[in-house]
Structures are given as structure tokens and as C-alpha cells.
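Appendix B, example 12.
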Amino acid sequence: MVTTVNPAVVSTKYWEKLPNGRVQCTVCPNYCRLAEGQRGACFVRMRQGDEIVLTTYGRSSGFCIDPIEKKPLNHFLPGTPVLSFGTAGCNLTCRFCQNWDISKSQEIDTLADEATPQTIARAAQKLGCSSVAFTYNDPVIFMEYAIDIAKACHQLGIKTVAVTAGYINDEPRREFFKYMDAANVDLKGFTGRFYEQICGALLENVQETLVYLKNETDVWFELTTLLIPGENDSEDEVNALSRWVLETLGPDVPLHFTAFHPDYKMMDVPPTPPATLSRSRRIALKNGLRHVYTGNVHDEEGGSTYCHQCGQKLIGRDWYVLSDWNLTPDGHCMACGTPCAGVFAGPPGQWGARRMPVRLRDFAL
């Protein structure tokens, strides 16, 4: 339970007072040690007195209805609309960030929309959304707000989705994911060099999050790796990554290889060729993963879901648009009866590829 200081600031519990007078934030492995008034690397968690507060509670950079496939989640309520939003800031420093205007923002004015958790849940229900997604920037840095929203959503039968890099410490990780129904976790690469030099993070911590999700939760999760030419797209790295996923997380965890485009501090790197995505998909499938996808490109074969037992196309996709549907209401192959891993609820939704901005003021009491 959080204590509201004003509409944008709440007290938090993941911090400790150090002998030198600093207050250390313990949400993520950055362990920011803050003097009075100083903000952490994420920008949104700040020392105020002898505690750490979240400065963006109740405020967003904007709300939009997206297809659930855009998160990307291909095995979680396919075809349904998801109410998506983010705040500001991030606890990583990825040089290739494709939402940098939000995640790297240090302007509170970016947070133009205000909404209580109850308003967000009510809006999702009235707009016909099956879920609410915490996305655009990483929700672990605004976890108190995300958790309160999840509680309000669950009271109305709305599910919650975290789109995250998984860079979070053990105790807050357990609390945060207790309230999530699904997640897409960025496994950004598979070398320590890439994580440390390009992302400002540690691969090992992300792996810990994934192992925790697999072994200790019922959260449905999928993985995304943005392939950047010359950085994390070698056959050796894709081999190592996909083998680790198979051996540690199992064959049923979907893996999305998505295309990079020049952005933020990597404007001099060329876009990812579609052939690189297809090659990586083939490697991962050969290594034993059952559901491997290509993303950010038109590729029906690489975007569709197939039965791992008989090869039947279960869900046809071209980017975010569904075509074929050969699953029973409870997610079994219509041809051979083999179950497809995921969360399915009857026939697919019909939202398609639409993206619809929403103003939450219309749903406030």
C-alpha cells in the first residue's frame, strides 16, 4: 500500500539508509546512492528527506489502444486490444532505444495525462480491452503505480501485461510480478559486453528474472531480441541465446527476433536485413524452440504460429493482422489435438493492426 504525498509523488519501500548519510535505492541493480533531492539513474525515483519517492505516480506520457501482438505477445489472447501506456525514464541506458523520447525524457511535462488506477481499469473495461500493458518505458521503475493499476484491473476482470527489460532485484521482482498476468521480456543480447557497453546493465540479472518467471510464477511470458547488425546478430550469439532459452526456460517460450532501425545514439548503424531475422529464426527452430517469430517486418511465415507436432498453421499473422485460426477454444491444434502453449480464450479477437490514442479524462469520475 502506497501513501500519496501529492498526485504525482508517493513513498516507496525499496531503499535503505547508508552509514554515510546517503539513501540507496534497491529496486534494481543500479543501487543508486542519493543525496537529498537527487534522482536515480531512472530519473523518476528521488530522495526526499530520508526516503525514496516515486515522482510520476498517476501520470503518463499518453494512452493508446494497441493490438496485443504489438507488445509483442503472440500466445496471449491473440487479436485482442490492449490499453497501453508508459510514464517517463528508464533504468537502462540502451544506445539503440527506440522509445528514447519517453524513456530518456527528463521533462516532467512529458507526462501530460493524469489517471488514477481505477480510472485506467474502468477505461479498459469500457473500451473493450482485455488487458492493460505497462510499456513504452520500463514499468519496474514505476512499479508502485503499476501494481495499484493491476489491482484495480483485476477487480474488473482485466488482465495486466508488463513489457520490461527484466532489470530488477529479487524482492521487488517478486512483488511486481505477483500482479502481472503476462510479460514480454527483452533479452537484448547474449554477451556481457553487449549488455555492459550498449545497455549499461548486467546480463546475469536479466537471466535471473527469466529463471524466476519460469520456475516460480504462472506469468505467461515471451522474449524479444532486437537484432542489431554487427552487435548481437552473429550466428554464434543467436545459437548461444536460443540454446540457453531451450535448456533453461524450455521449448515452449516464444522468442521474437525483431528488426532494428537507426535511432537515438546508433544512427550510423544500418537497419536489420530481413534475411538476418529469417536466419536467426531458423537457427532457433533447429535448436529446438517451438515458437520463433520475426518482427517489425512483413513476413507471414515468420509471424505465424505452427503446431510443433504436425506442422499445421495454428494462427496466421502478417505483422499484427491475423488470418488463419486453427485452434480449439482451449488452445489445441484442430488437426491433431496437440496443445499450443499460451493463454487462449475462445475465438480470436478482431482488433487487427489499429492504433487508437485515448484520453483518460473521459473516464474519470
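DSSP finds nine helices and 21 strands in the chain. The two ends are 22 Å apart (CA to CA).
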